Amino acid sequence: MSVPYIDNPTDLATYCRELRTHDWFAIDTEFMREKSYYPQLCLIQIATPDGAVCIDPFGIDDLGPLLELLYDPAILKVFHAARQDLEIFHVMRGTPPAPVFDTQLAATLLGHGDQVGYGALVKETLGVELEKAHSRADWSLRPLTPEQLEYAADDVRYLVQVYEKQRAALEQNGRLPWLAEDFAALSDPRTYENPPQEAWRRIKGVNFLKGVQLAVLQQVAAWREQVAQDSDRPRRWVLKDEVMFDMAKLMPDSLDKLGRIRGLEKGTVERNGKRLLELIQQGRKMPKEDWPQLETTVRLAPEQEALVDAMMALVRLRAQQHQVSVPTLAPRREVERLLGDDPEAALRHGWRAQLAGHDLERLLRGELFLHIRQGRLEAEESGI
Q1: What is the pTM of this model?
Q2: Which residue range(s) make up the domain with 345?
Q3: DSSP codes of every residue in 36-68
């Protein structure tokens, strides 16, 4: 089977006119980011019930006709594990496409567990075993082989069938509206923003630092994030996490001491040493009230732990009844947030509230109770 291959503006415009006759299509991308901060788009795969095509962005200066469809609010875009693909278009346009449907998220409400991979979902849904030979291919190299194009096309041709089956099942069991909030979050620009001042939270080992050390780490991490963004280089090429950790822990005050930090390259010290020392000093001089704070875990009292245990029993019961995994529905941390009256607790929103959150609140109010009947846990109205 030969996959239609579009690598020029004329063919793209023709295809997009055809694509506009559909009210939804499946889409996937191949990209590289090993040598860049932002994902480098290498291939776009699109499919409808009529078939799949591969679009080569390297031969097309203006993807405008396709972007118009991606950002058309009347056309649904179907992805699997959409976040990284949507990030690419967010970089292009400053906002991700909408509306979207993510088959990985939908799978959580159809008994497939948490974060099921595309290959596993295709096998479970369609009984098709996908080829894995090109999963580590360098998609920036040209020409692409026919085998690569077939592999890439498989990422959307079966996605069409998975989507159709999922949508039908979700409509049948009334769960399709439950996913609206999760899908909307994927199209929220804030999902893809990386403000430099918050970069310190993602540094490996941050939980082992405290006080002024966190202030220093915040300054250095913000600088690294900004440099990586401006130069479109991987963060680790600017500074490695372990190097920043040692800077924050040791807080060197001279180029000699800075140069002794393990893993810090000599060239980095020569180019940026003075600036790094300035950042360390800025962190050390930061007023105590301005020091960044780690999220603290509040230790629950024994009676609260007992309540969470009871709530988790109800979560497991609802997860079993609705064929949803417990971690997907409500990990213990989310149950604790609900008990703590956190308005942002996931169990207060969307389908999680529908499946378990509302019942957990009723349990806490004494309107629902748990009991064992013939060796099975059951939840019933309290009659109050």
Answers
A1: 0.91
A2: 302-381
A3: -SS-EEEEEEEEETTEEEEE-GGG-S--HHHHH
